[in-house]
Specification:
Elements: H1 2-28, H2 35-41, H3 56-66, H4 78-88, E1 99-103, H5 123-127, H6 145-149, E2 155-157, E3 163-165, H7 175-179, E4 185-189, E5 195-196, H8 204-210, H9 220-224, E6 230-233, E7 236-239, H10 249-253, E8 259-260, H11 265-299
């Protein structure tokens, strides 16, 4: 019996010794944490979505406090939180419009199928099998890797087989973009309605062969834009959102309906009539000016 008592005493002493040792070690080797880090962490979204590129919200907060990440690093937290974080960091509140993710594709069911893929329901896995099930090497695969990556229920696969973004729910964390093997998802200012629904860099006939909705790089949109906001780059139309004013003229001349909001047949016909009348008026003015000049020469 006395041996049991000794055992308890020894264990108690050892426990006390090791407890004191750990307490001293925790103070000696304590890593000082900036008090701002907790304050910043409290303002983040708390979703641990990874869209910021750091390991969870705590990693993002630490990076912001260290100056390795901007105060806007957590897009899901929103502009109000970013302004408060800026105040904590002694910076001015960030300016700029809210942005949302956008999928540069409207192919899906309109794309020509090359093979019938049977395998893991994952976009990256599908690309490993003959480059994917569609002839178009640039389009959405429709297996929803981006949907799975979204922590805010802001993405789904549409009826046409292409991923679409719910702008009201999207926080612009861009976790979906990181999950897309085709790099089709970009961040766009929410107020900019005009968007090119294609990323196919094949030219003309080659693009038409693989998808009935593809941009063919014809350049009509570029010629029509009065703000120099859209250009054909690498065979596909690209919008400069710093210049775009949402006039939608490019949508009315696109022969492939590859620019949203897609203009109706009636809208396109009406615009053709307007352009025709403008051309006739310009021709008449030019003819009148030429006749006036000729008359002046004759009189002189």
């Amino acid at each position: 019996m006395i041996n049991v008592v000794y055992a308890f005493v020894v264990l108690g002493v050892l426990g006390a010794v090791f407890g004191c040792a750990l307490a001293i070690a925790s103070k000696v080797f304590e890593v000082k944490k900036d008090p701002r880090e907790e304050a910043v962490l409290g303002l983040l979204a708390g979703a641990n979505c990874g869209g910021c590129g750091y390991p969870g919200c705590s990693g993002c907060a630490a990076a912001i406090v260290k100056g390795d990440a901007p105060v806007t690093a957590c897009a899901p937290a929103g502009p109000d939180a970013a302004a408060k974080i800026a105040e904590i960091m002694g910076q001015s509140a960030p300016e700029g419009e809210r942005e949302t993710a956008f999928v540069k594709c409207n192919g899906g069911n309109a794309a020509v199928k090359r093979i019938e893929y049977v395998g893991i329901h994952d976009c990256t896995a599908a690309t490993k099998v003959a480059g994917g099930p569609f002839e178009c090497e640039w389009g959405c695969l429709g297996f929803g890797s981006c949907v799975q990556a979204c922590k805010f229920d802001a993405m789904k696969i549409g009826e046409n087989g292409v991923a679409v973004v719910d702008r009201d729910k999207c926080t612009d964390c861009m976790a979906c973009a990181a999950a897309c093997p085709r790099h089709l998802i970009v961040s766009v200012p929410v107020s900019k309605q005009v968007r090119v629904l294609c990323a196919n860099q094949d030219k003309g006939k080659a693009a038409m062969t693989v998808c009935t909705n593809s941009c063919i790089g014809c350049g009509l949109c570029q010629k029509e834009c009065r703000k120099d906001a859209i250009h054909v780059t690498n065979g596909v139309a690209v919008i400069d959102y710093a210049k775009c004013v949402n006039c939608k003229l490019c949508t009315k001349v696109c022969p492939r309906d590859a620019i949203t909001p897609v203009a109706s047949k009636e809208e396109k016909e009406k615009y053709k009539e307007i352009k025709k009348k403008q051309a006739e008026k310009a021709a008449a003015a030019k003819k009148a000016a030429a006749e006036k000049t000729a008359a002046a020469v004759s009189a002189g």
